[in-house]
Amino acid sequence: MEKQGNYILDTEWLALNFTGYFLGRELELKAALNDKRHRISKVGVSSRVYGHWVEVGLMDDDRPSGKGWVAISLSEIIWLSIIMKLREFGLELNKIKKVKEYFDQHSSKDQQSKFPFLDFYIIYVLTSKEPVTLMVFDSGEAFLARQNAIDTSRHFGSIIEDYISIDLNSLVKDKFKLGDIETDYLNYSLNPIEKEVRQALDFEDVHSLSIKTKGKEYLLNKQFNKTSKAELEPLFRKLEYADYHQLKTPSQVIYKLFEKKKVKK
User: Fold this and answer.
1) Contacts 24+ apart (CB under 8 A), 15-23
2) Are strands 208-214 and 242-248 parallel, antiparallel or unpaired?
3) Cα–Cα distance measured from residue 24 to residue 173, given in angstroms and rounded to the nearest whole number
4) CA–CA distances in Å: residue 265 to residues 8, 130, 218
5) What global pTM score does this model have?
6) If exposure means fewest CB atoms within 10 Å of the residue's CB, which of 47, 100, 169, 215 is most exposed?
7) What is the pLDDT of residues 156-187, one digit of tens each?
8) Stretch 98-102: mean pLDDT
């Protein structure tokens, strides 16, 4: 019986977002990722090691006549960082070359991007809070995918081997020096309404929460009870759509704060 391979269950999402929109399209952020104006010292790779990686096919030498100082792009910085991570895990260079072939597979269809698939997910990391993981198997077979798609694939048994895991979000944050980039490692698998409910119940000290459906939207109404204006005012300023009123009881004043929000299904 022929051995079953690994695969990621994310075909429709990729067809819509990568193949249908990103691949071959000229984008400002894509151009910025491929602008060669950085030195290899930014990654911490010596000229000798870099030269060896060029010789074995892990990097391409784009210098005219192979002379002059080496200039690399932000995209290549991430790729070099991936090479270094894989070497730390002990993966052989010939297997890392297979990972490069995985990233090279769409390059002929996108003249603006050297590694279109890698660039696509770098931009996704920069514009989304969802975790993205590079999976590299012992053979050198590789997949770059949203963690949610990886979880689904593992659940349905389409990933059958162990793999090296590299967190692309952390890599981008570190190499691009983006201290404010956020990744939602806790709620990434939840849909928008599930995230709102979990946030309300676990972190926001909500007194009550009601949800109604209207067409293609959910209407959320959160109620917070506070016993002083000192507690009320910071929360009121923080919330985008909120109102409050006072309820006087014989023993105290209660401030009831209401936040109303629309969430798409």
Assistant:
1) 17/120, 18/116, 18/117, 18/120, 22/116, 22/119, 22/120, 22/123, 23/106, 23/109, 23/110, 23/116, 23/120
2) unpaired
3) 26
4) 25, 18, 7
5) 0.77
6) 215
7) 999 999 999 999 999 999 998 877 788 988 88
8) 96
